[in-house]
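>> received
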Amino acid sequence: MNPITMQLVADKYIKMALEEDINSEDVSTNAVMPEYKKGEVQLICKEDGIIAGLMVFERVFTLLDSDTQVTCHVKDGDEVKKGEVLAVVTGDIRVLLSGERTALNYLQRMSGIATYTRSVARLLEGTKTTLLDTRKTTPGMRVFEKYAVRVGGGANHRYNLSDGVLLKDNHIDAAGGVTQAVQAARAYAPFVRKIEVETENLDMVREAVEAGADIIMLDNMTPKQMAEAIQLINGRAETECSGNVTKENINTITQLGVDYISSGALTHSAPILDISMKHLRTV
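>> returned
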């Protein structure tokens, strides 16, 4: 995540998170620290994983006080170990205390996604298959969660509904069929947009190919059905597998030669990475 994205997109969500946590004042902090005092605190990893979101972590504190300094000993994408000191945060102790939970919420969530994504992406190494996320993200967290997927070694599917054409079952029903849906999308969408169609059986696959779909999603199909679908498509469209993808069956799917595997679990089911701020002291 670069500074431009941070200021144009991420800042508003970070401010909303801070306002959610501090709607008038931090009573606990103001009670024990009524005046400015400079301090520092360590950011410590409590389990092994992949770190992601350090810039977001830092931004929480600098939005509260631009004089806050975060000195990082690692960078996004690094493998971190239990007990490792990841960074030191220095500044107004009131800021360190008030921003702690929000900053950690972002860092833990993003690092958890990056860690889980890395574990799945490693299963695809040496294959032609690309691992994708989905739009199954936490409201208000999409920009952060999709960034974390990339840090973990995955790639992003469309960011939002304005980002691409994906004709799912209800779109197809609304249009009256696969062919009608593809034709309508082709007439309406800008020529630079690829058209993807979600299919659930071989008849839909056949119709999507004949209608000229650019990408065909094989949704909730068995490996046998996917193999037949890929043979039917025969390179006339890119292929994406979605639904019922697990670490246990992913090797079988990649061996079929599918171009993409999309997994909502990367964002909706990844556990957090346990990280804490400890050893606060005055300086």
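>> The longest strand covers residues 38-45.
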